[in-house]
Amino acid sequence: MIVAEQKPLEEIRRMIAPYQRVLILGCGTCTTICGAGGEREVSYLHNALRLAQAKSNNGTHTFSEYTVKRQCDPEFVELLVDKVGDVDAILSLGCGIGVQTVAERFLDLPVLPGVNTSFMGMSKEWGVWDERCAACGDCRLAETAGICPIVRCTKGILNGPCAGTKNGKCEANKDMDCAWILIYERLERLHQLDKMRQYYPLRNFRTIPRPKRIVSKANIEVGGGDG
Amino acid sequence: MANSAFEEKLYSDKFLVTTEVGPPKGTDISEMVHHIDLLKDKVDAINITDHQSSVMRFPSLGGCLLVKERGGEPILQVTCRDRNRLAIQADLLLAYTRGIRNVLCLTGDSVDVGDHKEAKPVFDLDSVQLLTMIRTMESGTDIAGNELKGAPKFCIGASVHPEADFIEPQLIKFEKKAAAGAQFFQTQGIFDLASLRRFMQYASQFNVKILAGIIVLSSAGMARYMNDNVPGIIVPQAIIDELASAEKGKRLQKGIEIATRSIKTIKEENLCHGVHIMAVGNEGIVPDILEAL
To answer: Which pLDDT band, with edges at 50, 70 and 90, does A227 fall under?
Structure first.
């Protein structure tokens, strides 16, 4: 899932300053799970913004709140049509994709990001999320014992550890495991160390020209993507 | 025929001595030139570091050109941290046309350990791929397969870490570097000769030359700092204690003594093919070490 963090309240206040009526828009999928922008966070943020406004005696915003199932899906974003008629800006707590999906639908409304989209990752334990995928477009997890060196090695290198690893940790961050030590240990356990002895050539960055687009093959065959 | 004076010596029986000079942060190159002049006739080659520890400095390529101008033998250090495959290949073409023939291929320290922590880390290649890229260029094409109008030819080396606390993965990487064409290795700092002996038992099966890295420590504080902050370095407690035992003002002298002792043993026991002396800011003392040998 996509993991995000809510922006600091002061930054959000600066962003919304020019707009009187602000819709705080939550997302019911990834940012709900990572606690950055679900229904609960929309409500907390609403209260926090109102309180900050009252306390500072600065600003006359009025807020409304709403949470859609998925901000990255035009079908759900369409449901906003009757919610945005009387607002001056939308403060989205969806990821960067959500913000842009909403912005593409409502061309005359400023859509502001209330969260910083951080990475694609997994829940490690309660309240802890770890990055696991770089969306590199050329998955090599079969060769690296299911541990991604592109995202988990700070240098993203493919042919084994650098010399900076110490106590199994990374030179860039002593709390972070060295991905290549993990890969070595797991390949050894799987009796697949030969995979590490193989030479991996330079990465093909053409697999990630930005922006990417994927068109479902099924859609191509039936001649359209209208569903 | 050898590519360079250094390559020629590499395949002789000579015990090799290389050292390194770190370029300045700024345009005042007088101290670097002074160090080059001081060392050029006393060592077999001088490495010029490439933004060592990810601290932005005058470039390795510029330093190597100076070494050439002053009549010395340079080893160009190339890391993959700051330049993508286009930029590195271009630098190599320039280096070759200006007579720089020795290249040390490194992945490069993480941006996070340096003084531009917010910079974009490039790492388009790693050290093994860099070695391969150079051999590809020598065959007459760039790494994308396009024909070169004039191909370079280099003597290429890499680094290895015999004192890594988990050695097996490092040895796999060493083998890959040797297979990719590395002719020589300048090791990370060696403090415990037992680890060098163990490493050489293994490494001697490969047709590569090993130059043991010798870091000249200037105090116990420096040793502790390096343990905490310099990627991969592990100075043993015994060495730290020995440095601490020296009187104030004589600690660098003690560091020189420790380095000289290691080099003498390596040479006498014929442990490997040479040494690479890293004086880390005290380049001026390298001649003292050489005289004491």
So the answer is: very low
Mean pLDDT for B193-218 is 97
- Residue B229: CB partners within 8 Å, gap ≥ 6? B113
Asked whether the beta carbons of residue B173 and residue A199 sit closer than 8 angstroms, the reply is no
ipTM for this prediction: 0.94
Give the predicted TM-score (pTM) of the model. Answer: 0.93
Asked if residue A211 has pLDDT above 80, the reply is no
Q: On the CB side of B39, how many CA atoms lie within 13 Å of its CA?
A: 33
CA-to-CA distance for B273 and B6, rounded, in angstroms? 13
Taking an 8 Å cut-off on Cβ atoms, the answer to whether A156 and B123 are in contact is yes
Q: How confident is the model at residue A106 (pLDDT cuts 50, 70, 90)?
A: very high
- Return d(Cα B159, Cα B188) in angstroms, integer: 7
Per-residue pLDDT tens over the stretch B117-128? 999 999 999 999
**CATH of region A2-119:** 3.40.50
> Do the beta carbons of residue B101 and residue B153 sit within 8 Å?
yes
Give me the amino acid identity at A33: I
In whole angstroms, how far apart are CA B158 and each of A82, B108, B131, B178? 65, 11, 8, 9
Which residue has tokens 């490039």?
Answer: B122
Is residue A189 pLDDT above 50, yes or no?
Answer: yes
pLDDT given at position A167: 92
What span, in angstroms and rounded, lies between the C-alpha atoms of B21 and B279? 8
Give the single-character DSSP code of B120.
P
Q: Rounded distance, CA A154 to CA A164, Å?
A: 11
A157 CB within 8 Å of a chain B CB: yes
- In chain B, residues 180-219 whose CB comes closer than 8 Å to chain A: 180, 188
A chain contacts of residue B87, beta-carbon cutoff 8 Å: none
- Euclidean distance between CA atoms A195 and A145, whole angstroms: 9
Say what the pLDDT of residue B273 is: 97
Judging contacts by C-beta atoms under 8 Å, the chain A residues touching residue B175 are 197
* Residue range B12-71, pLDDT digits in tens: 999 999 999 999 999 999 999 999 999 999 999 999 999 999 999 999 999 999 999 999
Report residue B278: phi and psi, to 5°.
-115, 110
Q: Which CATH number fits domain B5-292: 3.10.450.50, 3.55.50.30, 3.20.20.220, 3.40.50.2300?
A: 3.20.20.220
pLDDT, one tens digit per residue, over B217-268 is 999 999 999 898 888 788 999 999 999 999 988 999 999 999 999 999 999 9
Alpha-carbon distance of A152 to A57, in angstroms, equals 46
Q: Which of A173, A181, A201 sits opposite B169 (nearest CB)?
A: A181
Question: Residue A107 is encoded by which pair of tokens?
Answer: 């061309």
A161/B173 CB distance under 8 A: yes
B47 strand-pairing partners? B20, B75
Domain range summary for chain A, segments of one domain joined by +: 2-119, 136-207
